[in-house]
Amino acid sequence: MESQITIDETLNQRRSVEVCRAFETFDEFIKYRNGNLKNCDLSGAIDLDVDFSKYATDDTTKLPIREDANLSCKVLKAYKNGEFVVCQFWSNEDKKIVKQQVHRFRYFFDFVAFLKGDLSGSDLLFCTGMKNLSNIDEINLSDVKMTSEICEKLNVQYRSYDYDEKLIGEFPAVEKNEEETALVLQSSRRIVSYERSMFSADLSNMFLWESNRISYISDLHLMHRIKNAGCKSKEDVIYTMKKIIDSILADSSSLTLIGGDVSSEFSIFELFVKMLRKLAGLRSRNFVFVLGNHEIWNFPGLPMDEIADKYRTVLKENGMFLLHNDLFYRNESDDIGIIPYDELIQSDNKALLEKLRCARLVILGGLGFSGYNEDFNANDGVYRATVDRKTEIQESKKFEQLYDKLTNVLAKKNTVIFTHTPKKDWCADADFHNDFVYVSGHTHRNIFFDDGVKRIYADNQIGYRNESPHLKSFLMDGEYDYFGDYEDGIYEITSQEYQDFSRGKNISMTFNRQVNILYMLKKNGYYCFIHKTKTGSLSLLNGGALKKLDKKDINYYYDNMELMIASIETPLNNFIAYQERIAEQIRKIGGSGWIHGCIIDIDYYNHVYVNPVDMTIRSYWASDIINKLVYPTVPALLKAECPDLYANYLKLIKGEKSNLLAGEQIKNEIALLPQEYLETDIYKASREIKKMQKLNSNVLTTWYDIVPEKNKLPEK
């Protein structure tokens, strides 16, 4: 079979080649290779008179071209990534490529000169500069890929593209929604949660943000994009499509949701998917689709499941996912899976919980349909002739029943309910579950609601008229609770289960200890892990570290968990709030503001230490944990070590009566000098605070003598 050659594959191969070692003679080379020429390209070795039959070769071996060889040559010409490229391939009688060569040109006329004016068959679709040519008398442009506009300007023939205009349609109510909410669609939302997590979470969690950001878009209506762009040829369609896909990929996260109404023409949907996969290339990007009502228009007479299978096949061939009453999950090691509808219905909730035990993200998706919408439904031609009102109601009830069955299972997971139609269209209960994120489209009424409890994202429905499609994003927690389905109580667990729990909470640790008995204590959503030795002594676990406890009664610690948590949590919350206020002032002047333990970073070397006992502030410069210069005030540190931030600080305090960074005024000039400080006690206190802060993950990792005072941190 003849090798299929593409310019993209060839350029990628060429860029991946690295020269590791050079040889002056073939004898040196073949000796080094032990007579093995597999995976060797010798096609450029001219006048090499060698009997290659003596050496090991296979299909990957490219031998030198001999003068008497009967070879055919294929030439690919294109404009790619801002340069003109010519790829030459020589094949033997067996259709195997024996030599290839790539030539790159920065300027068009060098490209033309090399080809001696023969640009026939070139792919110049994205070379917009072609429109500036005034004289093409000496250039052969037959069968060149260019937009119809440039072809007409240069008087070059092109094949026209005809599409079925019956597959392009609008609904007046939808058009009105689109017009009324155009500003919502065009607006971008800053994801504040990222900034907060970046400056107040553990460092190991900072890098989870990208994998927890989910991008979304719906109602692309590519047939309208094609019509609005005035596409006359297939090249015009590809050109228009690429601009849209480039915009999507520029904003895409590791997971992008595409929420239906991509195209009412199946072939255009297929082209979009193939181009999206090709342009995404080697980037780690996953795309999850649901169908919209427009995807159904093209298939009158076909059952809904068969229609879904057609789209599922195209997406699967391109490494993408379709959810049609199915469940998508991504587990703790970023493995991805789909639980299909039949399995979801037939499995009991206990089995599903076990399967999703380590799921960091769950998406329940489908079209949803509009069975509960009495104003805009199948009777209005929403699905054309493919789905009638009776079938629409049945399909909505099908998804509603699935949603109701899974609600208790998914409430304990990081769950997205991803449908084309809004919840009120497919569910009798229009209220939103506080533990779910809802993403939808269909109406073109762009709405967004997120009060920290209820989360609805239906604000990126591109619609019929908008010609600047872009993605929007939201954040998901990314944690999972390995013991989430356990009732309160004391359990014996394995070392592996403890590690699985910690991974789910994004707690970084090393735990290679031999254990005797390992207890998990769960109470009101909080956890505590205690190890019991053969002699009966107990130790509290903090990651992989053990801290010996005074008492040997495990029930004592279970009974007092609530009191211990309360004694830590109340003053700790006050302390954290105080730190956040200081960190906010640091960020206002251009500093980092990242909180870890008792320490708030100004930058890599300069820090603020907040004493958890008396809430006093100390500022210091540190090259490492030993060598530190302590300044009497934060402004003194900024003036000496961070002049740019100090200038910003002076601007900030103008007109302010007080500022947390200012501290007390010190008049003694000697006291203003920095003092060398070599002790490491601040880090010890900071470590204790970090242990307490693990309560943010609902894990109790330290045990203090419980004291009644509410305004102080517990003492050991």
UniProtKB/TrEMBL annotation:
Calcineurin-like phosphoesterase domain boundaries: 214-445
GO function terms (MF aspect): hydrolase activity
Domain of life assignment: Bacteria
PANTHER family: TRANSMEMBRANE PROTEIN WITH METALLOPHOSPHOESTERASE DOMAIN, TRANSMEMBRANE PROTEIN WITH METALLOPHOSPHOESTERASE DOMAIN-RELATED
UniProt protein name: Calcineurin-like phosphoesterase domain-containing protein
Organism name: Agathobacter rectalis
Organism lineage string: Bacteria, Bacillati, Bacillota, Clostridia, Lachnospirales
